[in-house]
Amino acid sequence: MKDSYKTIDYTDFGLPYVEVHGDEFCYQDLYELVGKNQYMTTYRLKQGSDAYLKYGVSVLGVMHINPATLKAVKSSNKEDVDLKEVQIDSPELELDEKLRSDLKYTGIKISDIEFISFLPWEREAELHDTGEKKVPNIVNVEVDFKELNIDADQLELSYLIHKNNNDVELIGYEKEQIIGLLLGTNDGHVDSRVLAHLGFDKECMNKNLNIRAKYYAYKEKKGTLSEAQKEIYAEIQGTISMRKTAMVLQEMVKSKVNADELNDAQNTLKLIMDAAIKFRPSILLHGKKQIYWDLESYLHIVMRHVKHFQMGRSKKKTPFSYKPEELENLIEQVIKRVEGEYRTHKLEHPYKNFTRQGKMAVRFNGDYYHLRIAPDGRVIQFHALEPIEVGT
């Protein structure tokens, strides 16, 4: 520690609680006490200080340490770190989003802190046998719809209609699914008013391969596809697969994959193609303004940052520390860390990208992530930063 402090450790009395008092704190000591392990901390503020007047008696949260600051405090010259403010990521609902954002990205003067108290508890990162991280707080529940005698298509249709009726801004894929399912349940017919409400007309509907694929998939499950329709469905599936293949090739061109490498990467290419064929767009954050990813998002991310999918110059990019099948859960968890900020951004800047990078990178489970979301809610960039090593 650079300075001297009085510590009251209530764990000696069976209480998981520690108080630290000092005439004045410094950033390096706060990092060692509560920042390094991301302890949830109460910062008691000096009466009459700027922070006191803005936030009240105290603020609760974890130290928000951006990548540049973390690199500085872990460097060989860390004793020279002389930061005057500390940034705090607070979960307090009593603070409005503007105050929480100020607290997180601007912070408070360290000299305004009277004392701190915290719970000395941290979650150890869980690992797979392969050494890859597990995304925390994920519970998978498997449901056998057939055993429960539930029509999954009708359940999906009801859910999507419920979202529409509650003024959720549906993504294009959801609108296509509604129309395809309505065609299936109504023997190939759908009300023109419904089409207009969802932004389609009959001509557009008939040309849309996703709508037609959903319609024929519904009929196939019900066993009502005619021989002629089976041929049409096969053609549609083939066309969709060709389009996905073209998108994979476009990403390969962007990654500058050369012919020699392609000859040696048949297994990698097969993994990518299988993943692309199986991929379906999905919602990553629910609410009136949804966040989602589509195949373009997915390929842009996995072909650059999933270890087993990297080719060309993408091999030099930082891979995720997680299994590929956990990527969707990872993105969901990272987005949840900035959900309030995203909601505020959508109200104030509805036609601008939402971006978190550089000093505003999102910290989750020991790593930093860059994130960019388009105005319509589509994820267009997501990747981890290089791990920050201790200097020598």
Walk me through this protein's architecture:
This protein has a domain at 6-118. Helices cover 42% and strands 15% of the residues. It has helices at residues 27-35, 50-55, 67-73, 97-105, 152-165, 172-185, 192-197, 202-207, 209-222, 227-254, 259-263, 266-278, 295-305, 327-337, 339-348, and strands at 6-9, 18-21, 41-45, 58-63, 85-86, 88-89, 108-109, 113-118, 282-285, 291-293, 354-356, 362-364, 367-373, 379-384. The radius of gyration is 26 Å and the shape is elongated. The protein is of the alpha+beta class and 392 residues long. The strands form four sheets. The protein has a six-stranded antiparallel β-sheet. Strands 11, 12, 13 and 14 form a four-stranded antiparallel β-sheet that branches. Strands 5-7 form a two-stranded antiparallel ribbon. The longest helix has 28 residues, at 227-254. The model has no long low-confidence stretch (mean pLDDT 91). Strand 12 (362-364) and strand 13 form a beta hairpin.
